[in-house]
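#lab-general

N.A. 3:47 PM
ok so I finally got the sequence cleaned up, no stray characters, all 285 residues accounted for. can someone with queue access submit it? mine expired

B.Y. 3:52 PM
send it over

N.A. 3:53 PM
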Amino acid sequence: MKKIKKAVVAVAGSGTRLLPATKAMPKEMLPIVDKPIIQLVAEELVAGGIEDIILVTKWDKKPLEDHFDHSWALENDLRQAGKEEKLKEIVALAEMANFIYVRQKGPYGNGTPILSAASLVKDEPFVYVWGDDLVKSKVSFTKQMIDDYNESGHLQIGVQEVERDQVNRYGIVKLKEGTMRIEDIVEKPAIEDAPSNLADFGRMILDQDIIDVLARTKLGKGNELWVVDAIRDYIKGGGEFYAKKVEDGEWLTTGDPLNLLRATLKYASDREDLKKMIKEFSRNL
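B.Y. 4:20 PM
back already:
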């Protein structure tokens, strides 16, 4: 069984729910306190053993590339000012992994980034990530998933329970009774048709079999290409696919103003230099 060393990260979305902030800035570069969302995602991946991070982008995502590159002028300024800790932090961004950039081509939908990067992960397992989903946990969730995969060989997707009135926003899974094996998975079902309130989110371990199924998957809801539809077809064809819950942590989406604020407050509340002030601010508010 091949080791997982690559991750494909979908970052080609436009972030329309966060306009006008995302008019000239990719949504993945919006800050969670003082780190952009995409940096927190990359740190999780690297902590899980990922060496090659493949970002599937579009024309307006150059700030992502700049963020993970060396900034010689800034580094020189920090060096001249004697700010060694900040210098180390900035240099480490460019050296934390091998960053590879691929332009997304194909129909709209969260399955398209996989096909855009397919030649770079051919015949090997990989982690697939949505670039605006965070998992805040004591141990990197990517590491949790890869450790599980190394032990079981299971393809898998991250899941978390959501309120029943929110199931129509996510892919919803139905588990085989008494197990974490997925029996069915439905993209954004009507509330009355949802098989559970267990929502999938942007952390998956996939392989060539899923790519092959996805390549022949028809466009689904909203005339988009959904990775969930490919997983469903894979299961119907006899493949095994499992759900994975976060241990000692939680999934935090950042794709809309309320959830972006919620994620920011949760991260800020864990920082020694901020948590006291955050609590006082919350009480006053």
